[in-house]
Request: fold
Amino acid sequence: MRAAIGLALVAAGLAGPAAAEEGLGPVTKLPMPRYVSLNASEINVRRGPGLDYRIDWVFRRDGLPVRVIDEYASWRRIRDHEGEDGWVYHALISGRRTVLVTLPGVLLQREPGGAGLARPCDTLTALPAGAVACAGEGVVARLEACAPDWCRIETGGYAGWVPKTAIWGVMATEVFGD
Reply:
């Protein structure tokens, strides 16, 4: 009987935030999941979608990429690069795309391809040919374009291509731009 009631609620669209339409957010009709960035330097992350829910933690880094995994009214459930998730008010996130460097040192290349994988930045005496800069772990960069295995990012006035495996904030199959 309990299963029949649950199926009836899902069929009627009354099961709450978990009943999102396949591939699209029930509120925005934007792709789900999707990457966005934080739009403020201090953002409360709540246990549920509303001000009555407890604050579980506070983000204190503007521009950090997060993944929207659910929507309910004016609230978005987000997940960070460590796999933690919670609810934030929609105005506190932006469609501006950023990524987080997840390896100790990643060379930004002039062109996609080559040996751009992690090399500790502090051990380099000079940049190898074809590299324009070195980004350390934890750097947040603006996402400009993505090819099948590489993405073009910009940070600190430097722009270049990095392997997708060295950043967080982009889908493995995502291709756009350049």
